[in-house]
Amino acid sequence: MGFLQAVRRHRLAIPLARNADALCLPAKLGGLLVREARHQQRASLALIALALEARTALEQEGLRALVLKGPALAMQTTGVARGRGGGDLDLLVAPEDLPAAVALLEGLGFHRPAGMFPRQLNSFWGHYARWSGHELNLERPGSPCLDLHWALNTVRAPLPPFAVLWQARQAVNLNGRAVPTLSLEHAFRHSCLHAASDQWMNLHHLLDIALLARQLPPASGARLRRECSVRLS
């Protein structure tokens, strides 16, 4: 069971289940792996539904938002929206749109956990929290958590600001809807920075990096390797 626990911790059930025969696992363990993969795929359905709901609501109010990781990255790396399983939904908005985006999402039933962030986003402490952080957690009963970002990481320098990310955005197909996400290169750089922030302890992040790297043009390799997080990853 240690193997299965590691698979869950690193969120590798879906990619491993696709190659279960090649792993030569005992029949019982192979069956548990496939069952875990199906569980993760079911969890991804709620994530896809939330991505479409939140993105549509923001778009109708004229607020730009990029879907990060989750089903959008799954489409880029595997071609299947359920290819990375469940988890939280990550959305990136322009910093100046954060108060309006929070108000809209709270209108959809989301709330901020008590004590996690200043209530008044335009207060002194609200501005300080936005300067020192990069995401705000929102919760809704019966729904995946939503992490609302106004920057990709607390460390701003390694990745461009929202305006550049939006200009270079790529659209992916989620249930027949075109949803904007990071470009392949920005998704690759973000995955490297994400893996570095976790000290390369999550194999799922390294798998994302490997799958994205296969799609990047060879000419971009030398330029990207000059970045610390990319080089180390």
Summarize the structure.
The protein is built from 12 helices and 6 strands.
Beta-strand content: 5-15%
- The SSE string, one letter per element, is HHHHEHEHHEEHEEHHHH
Provide the spatial order of strands within the biggest beta sheet: 1-2-4-3
Cα end-to-end separation = 29 Å
Q: Helical residue percent?
A: 40-55%
Largest sheet: 4 strands, mixed
Oligomer: single chain
Number of strands: 6
Class based on secondary structure composition and strand pairing: alpha+beta
**Spans of at least 5 consecutive residues with low confidence:** none
Shape: globular
Rounded average pLDDT:
89
Quickly count the helices. 12
Report the C-alpha radius of gyration, rounded: 18 Å
Overview of the structural elements:
The chain has 233 residues and is of the alpha+beta class. Helix content is 52%, strand content 12%. It has helices at 2-10, 13-17, 20-23, 27-60, 70-78, 98-107, 124-132, 162-167, 184-197, 203-213, 220-224, 228-232; strands spanning 65-68, 89-93, 135-138, 146-149, 170-174, 177-181. Strands 1-2-4-3 form a four-stranded mixed beta sheet. A two-stranded antiparallel ribbon has the order 5-6. Strand 3 (135-138) and strand 4 form a beta hairpin. Helix 9 packs antiparallel against helix 10 (203-213). The longest helix is centred in the N-terminal third of the chain and has 34 residues, at 27-60. The protein is globular. The two termini are 29 Å apart. The mean pLDDT is 89.
